[in-house]
Amino acid sequence: MFHFLNRIESLDAEKNKMSEVIETADGGWEGAILVCSQCAGKIPGERFLGKSRIKNELKTLIRSEKIAGVRVLEVSCLNVCEKNRIAIANTLFSEPGKKIAMVPAKTSAKRILNFFEIERDNPSF
């Protein structure tokens, strides 16, 4: 009986040890475009069925242009809100003043990619 209980304790210790290990995974992308969902939600016509228009347009354009290594993510807030503008950040762009763009409502996805200089053959991505 004690041998059985020792084995259970050993398995529990092993399980706890494994759960403490932080692992990494390759997501297949190098950079992300972050779209503030709160900014988009405040502007009429910028959200549809719980998703922002600009996120969907950016994803569609990135796929159609075959731009690899970029993921478009909607985030809750980037803490730089301006009236009638959507905060959009590019995680790989480090030039001062261009890390977060305050995009006017109805701005096209193409214009945003051009602003961040994201294109198919860009070595940054």
UniProtKB/TrEMBL annotation:
It comes from the Bacteria. This is Uncharacterized protein.
